[in-house]
């Protein structure tokens, strides 16, 4: 066989060698463009009824549901680690769920009890509350069901009342995740008119009708009840321009921050929102994303620590100012070491 002609790589490179900067740890650190910090983290916690009790969420290894007193301790731990924000989600006792989600307006509901208890301890952490009716409705939808329609305007009326009850209980950031039209403007006006003009609004502007929410619905107990799907209000995963339109409207209506959800499959949306509007932009690494990483690691198919850090760094690279993630507490511990 004739010896093939292979070019000389030095000639081709002409001195340009990308690997030089990667050759040592100090150099890799020096050229690093994005770095995860504890200040980027929002930790979601699930609240259950009862006293001095913690429950596992079976589809989310390591994630717990806390009674209010335990949620206070959890919030304390997060604050000690320097986590700036906590997002609260209630698992409402089934007997308190009804067609109209009226428990959402009860100032003594689990969410409000948790808010007051954490505030009473003066824990230095921002409290973010979810505005949507799904943890309170017997049909599992985020809005009011009339016939087979989730009605918009009547739902927004109820969401304004829900937001107000949360603000009164101490919510710092009200985060509507329901995807009704006009709710950001209506809630902003409600808060302003009732003495809460300083409370922030984080709008879930681009929330997709995603398959990745499964374990969350298990955590808040809505999986078994959800009638149909949420595609008449949550966005079609195929769309991207529509996400910008949603974010634009929410900003016009008074949103202080924009949330994109889910996270990892939607990093393109995070980047577009950030580049287009130059506003605080967040991503929600949802329950299914968490479960996938845990399951693969448990099977020995991926390295858990590296996969978690890589997934969170990807959000930074995409331009996110923060990440709502179930890994928040443990990654905060690791960042501290
Ligand atoms: C709905 C809501 C959802 C999540 C949080 N609030 C999605 C849904 O059930 O449609 C999902 C979060 C997660 O999967 O981690 N208001």
Automatic annotation (TrEMBL):
It catalyses: 2 5-aminolevulinate = porphobilinogen + 2 H2O + H(+). One of its GO terms (biological process) is protoporphyrinogen IX biosynthetic process. SMART domains: ALAD. Pathway: Porphyrin-containing compound metabolism; protoporphyrin-IX biosynthesis; coproporphyrinogen-III from 5-aminolevulinate: step 1/4. The keyword Metal-binding applies. Mg(2+) binds at residue 246. Signal peptide: none annotated. The active site is at 207 (schiff-base intermediate with substrate), 261 (schiff-base intermediate with substrate). Keywords: Heme biosynthesis, Lyase, Magnesium, Metal-binding, Porphyrin biosynthesis. GO terms for cellular component: cytosol. The keyword Lyase applies. Transmembrane segments: none annotated. It is an enzyme of class 4 (lyase). It comes from the Bacteria. It holds the Pfam family ALAD. Its EC number is 4.2.1.24. InterPro entries: ALAD, ALAD_AS, Aldolase_TIM. GO terms for molecular function: porphobilinogen synthase activity; zinc ion binding. Homooctamer. PANTHER family: DELTA-AMINOLEVULINIC ACID DEHYDRATASE (PTHR11458). This is Delta-aminolevulinic acid dehydratase.
């Amino acid at each position: 066989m004739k010896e093939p002609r292979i070019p000389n790589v030095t000639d081709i490179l002409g001195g340009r060698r990308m690997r030089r900067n990667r050759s040592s740890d100090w150099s890799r650190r020096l050229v690093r463009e994005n770095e995860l910090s504890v200040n980027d983290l929002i930790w979601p916690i699930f609240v259950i009824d009862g006293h001095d009790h913690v429950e596992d969420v079976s589809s989310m290894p390591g994630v717990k549901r806390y009674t209010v007193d335990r949620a206070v301790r959890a919030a304390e731990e997060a604050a000690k680690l320097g986590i700036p924000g906590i997002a609260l989600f209630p698992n409402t006792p089934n007997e308190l769920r009804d067609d109209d989600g009226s428990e959402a307006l009860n100032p003594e509901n689990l969410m409000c009890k948790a808010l007051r208890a954490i505030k009473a301890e003066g824990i230095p952490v921002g409290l973010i509350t979810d505005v949507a009716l799904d943890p309170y409705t017997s049909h599992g939808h985020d809005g009011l069901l009339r016939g087979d329609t989730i009605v918009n305007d009547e739902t927004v009326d109820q969401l304004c009342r829900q937001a107000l009850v949360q603000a009164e209980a101490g919510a710092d950031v009200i985060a509507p995740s329901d995807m009704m039209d006009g709710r950001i403007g209506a809630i902003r006006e409600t808060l302003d008119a009732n003495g809460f003009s300083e409370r922030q609004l984080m709008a879930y502007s681009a929330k997709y009708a995603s398959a990745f929410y499964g374990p969350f619905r298990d955590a808040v107990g809505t999986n078994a009840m959800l009638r149909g799907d949420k595609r008449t209000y949550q966005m079609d995963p195929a769309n991207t321009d529509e996400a910008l339109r949603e974010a634009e409207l929410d900003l016009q209506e008074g949103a202080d921050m924009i949330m994109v959800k889910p996270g990892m499959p939607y990093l393109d949306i995070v980047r577009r929102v950030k580049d287009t509007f130059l506003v605080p932009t967040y991503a929600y690494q949802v329950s299914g994303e968490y479960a996938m990483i845990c399951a693969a690691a448990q099977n020995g198919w991926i390295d858990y620590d590296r996969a978690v850090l890589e997934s969170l760094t990807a959000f930074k690279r995409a331009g996110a100012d923060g990440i709502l993630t179930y890994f928040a507490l443990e990654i905060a511990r690791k960042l501290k070491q």
